[in-house]
Amino acid sequence: MDKLVVKGPSRIEGEVTISKAKNAYLPILAGAILAEDEVIFSEVPNLRDIRTMNNLLTHLGTVIEEKKAGEFSYFLNELKTHEAPYDLVKTMRASICVLGPLLARFKKARVSLPGGCAIGTRPIDLHLKNLEKMGAEITIEGGYVEAKTDRLKGAHLTLDFPSVGATENLMMAATLANGTTVIENAALEPEVTDLGHFLQRMGAKIEGLDSKTITIHGVEKLNGCHFTAIGDRIEAATYIISGLMTNSQIKVKGFNPIHLDAVIEKLEQMGAKLERGEDFVEVFPSKIVGGEIDTAPYPGFPTDVQAQMVALATQAEGTSIITEHIFENRFMHVPELQRMGANITIKGNSAIVKGGASLKGAPVMCTDLRASAALVLAGFCAEGETHVQRVYHLDRGYEKIGEKFAGLGATIERVKE
Ligand code: UD1
To answer: Is the peptide bond before 9 cis (omega within 30 degrees of 0)?
Structure first.
């Protein structure tokens, strides 16, 4: 198993280009199930989660071909099986995204329940309840969701919570349903809108993207298209925060800063000197003071940037209170940061972080993608070597993280254990 060895304290400089968004591509790749022709994607990031989705799609019968570096074609002509097996689903919750497309196009699906995961129980009740409203017959047996239908029908759906995954699954299911589906209290995340744009490109009739009410008029079939997803706002936020933690000047480019409004605003309140362009944010050396951060659904502060903010807060002047409202148990980075010398107290779903800690390098390990990123960032500020073990968590969602930070001048090395 590989680990990342980070030597601190580190200064970084230069430019880094952000990859296309994993969380946009995962549902979009699943959405390729809906098309009756070949779909081509460009700049697909080389990530473990993407490979897991590809394995699942191949298992279902999709033929995936690499046309040139980063460009792939997907074509599902004949379904080999309608089952998404436990072994594939357990490693990646986003596998549930195949449920809606399978039901819509092939009228049946058998998808393993994702089960618990490191950041909480993460149920899929909103997906299932609303697919039932669209006419799916759903049973749960032996750890699998069994779903079938003659044809999904349009329905008026109201989500109890604006779940990203449920909005995406239902939107995909509705594209081929008979009649019109309205999703109220839909998630507003940019990745949901990007999926909507992809579906529109395939011929889906969707109105209200970027709003809380999305309307989908079902069509008979969807065609192929060529699509490239948006830049990864969470990866971008991680690099911006790394610049602030190391008091450096760096340019983070290849994404839409509007997608990071909440993060940029909060960082500026905390003293960050940032300049934003159309597709970049430049970070300048800044004196960071503590702040209060509350995660919330988009356009609020993203839960996927919470761990990185905890790392930043350890280096701020004064105290920060960081409250997690989306996922239970999403503070696995805290005990590891404490081992590096951070002063953090957990109270309920809040982390109270006393800034100004002098961190010391240590062997650390996390069971969650963003938590692991927070440890790399802390490693840049720590005296000595930080060994971030189980790099495969980072490989799920950060393309070439070692190379990208090394390109910015950090001392970071991937080592086989
Ligand atoms: C997606 C992102 C993830 C991000 C999260 C919140 C992908 C692949 N993953 O995850 O990185 O952290 O959005 O922005 O895009 N919930 C229910 N019932 C459901 C569905 C969700 O109770 O049927 C709850 C969850 O347990 C959680 C909350 O709703 O507490 C948010 O989950 P959701 O928005 O669905 O997140 P994901 O789509 O799983």
So the answer is: yes
